[in-house]
Amino acid sequence: MLSSRPRLAFLAAPSAEAQALRAELAQRYDDHAPGEADVLVALGGDGFMLQTLHRHGGHGKPVYGMKLGTLGFLMNQHRGDALIERLHAAEPAVLRPLEMLVQTESGASVGSLAYNEVSLLRQTRQAAHIRIDLNGQTRLDELICDGVMVATAAGSTAYNFSAHGPILPLGSNVVALTPIAAFRPRRWRGAVLKADTEVRFTVLDPYKRPVSATADSHEVRDVVEVTIRESRDRTVTLLFDPEHNLEERMLAEQFTSG
């Protein structure tokens, strides 16, 4: 529960509009370092919200976003007034990221977190050939495709949905395994998995058919194996105005034709 006068940290995207609003709000409500604040206020679009979660999610502070970018699925509407009242009335959405561990051709191991999705994509004009194991058991010997991804519920409306993957309800404890332009098996549409499933992608011909892996915006090239699992000890809390809570937005998205 927030105090009557919570300490706020204002974080803004590089745009002039976001920076101007940050200066205005910081003067009106005071501004604190992210590690000392009760709430982080992110000003921008969904891309900036993801940056905020990656940079400051370790503080364990709830994040309230205000939309100033092109996309704002993870953001609230921009209004400069009654911010404290809005924070007290806000509804929380707890998100658990994916952990990605990549093995590259050079033998390096690279780890990263993804709040939306982990995606594999072919690096050249040639299709990728990928084996898929779930909890150590091979489920698909060879997927020939442009790529494949694992998406969280919060990320299921983003890249995953554009690739014809399912929208997942928050709190469903599942993730989406979605192919990108699958060539073989041509009719395979992916799968919905329990969130604690360990997914392993093995690139079958990494030298002739190189593949990159991306966790949100962190890309690793020339991968040979990628292991993905839901984080067991990391969560972030987003705050939403009651009339625009994330669960309602995800439900409404499934009934939007445009």
Description:
The mean pLDDT is 92. The protein has five helices and 17 strands. The strands form three sheets. Strands 6-5-16-13-8-9 form a six-stranded antiparallel beta sheet, with no helix packed on it. The chain has a six-stranded antiparallel beta sheet with strand order 12-11-10-7-14-15, with no helix packed on it. A five-stranded mixed beta sheet has the order 1-2-3-17-4, sandwiched between helices. It has two domains: 8-95 and 235-253, Rossmann fold; 98-230, Probable inorganic polyphosphate/atp-NAD kinase, domain 2 (Tumour Suppressor Smad4). The longest helix has 14 residues, at 16-29. The relative contact order is 0.17. The protein has 258 residues and is an alpha+beta fold. Strand 14 and strand 15 form a beta hairpin.
